[in-house]
Amino acid sequence: MKFIQRRGSVARRAGYACAFALLAAVVSVGSQDGKAAILPVVTPVAACTDLLKIDFTGLEGAPTKLDSAVVVEPSAAVPTEQCVVTGYVASKVKFTVWMPTKTWTQRLLMKGCGGYCGNLIAPTPTTYDVGGNSGAGVGCPFVPSGELAIAAHNGGHTGNTNSGRFLAAIADGMWAIEDSTSLIDFFYAANHKATVAAKAVINAFYGRNPTYSYFDGCSSGGRAALHEAQRFPKDYNGILAGLPHDRQHLREYLPSFVECSRQLQTQWHINLDRG
To answer: What is the pLDDT of residues 250-259, one digit of tens each?
Structure first.
């Protein structure tokens, strides 16, 4: 697995820096001669809407149900036709998967959520760098190529839904009060659960799992990337972590969260120093 961690202003540079970092991950696992693997396009073996007929509740550690599965026609925001699936993993991990219908080259990209998470933002070019979907670099147009299946999730809870408030959901931590399950999901479990669900949906749609899978996150998403590397190293071939919030960040900026975390650590023996 290739792991790239980026901090400070470097993580905020646009376009080429992020593209180069992700390309490095692709190259490292693509082929032994240093070139990214050129994989053939795989087309669906099932109709998008038929995914709703499949029972995903038996997924180990991630019982899943789908809420919707629709074909999205090409547009300015998403220039390739997509099968867009939304669903949830027990109990409150909402996720979405965008799957190209004609151009998929066997790769998955999972987006880590930012801030307190709590919002499910579609990973399109117009939303990629805002709210809960900020990546380790700004300006990376992953969707327009039409080669990647792209997934995102809400961190295992729903935050403030006031659309008139700037970044309402990811700045809201009230959901964490006396909710140890949601805290565990937020700190690390939601990423793995959403990964299991996304790969199962991809397998059902294309008839095969992704050949290469990547995780990209910044801020809380960067911390999630560290947890993925440490706790679930088999989930991804490449991980891009930007500005990961570690325990010191939590002490400085999220004192109420730290107190919840300390209580949770005592009750459930979770070691926050792991990432």
So the answer is: 444 444 444 4
Query: For 103-148, how does the pLDDT look when each residue is reduced to its tens digit (9 = 90+)?
Result: 999 999 998 887 788 877 666 645 544 333 445 545 555 555 788 9
Spell out the domains of the chain, with CATH numbers in brackets: 2-270 (3.40.50)
Q: Does residue 209 contact residue 202 with C-beta atoms inside 8 Å?
A: yes
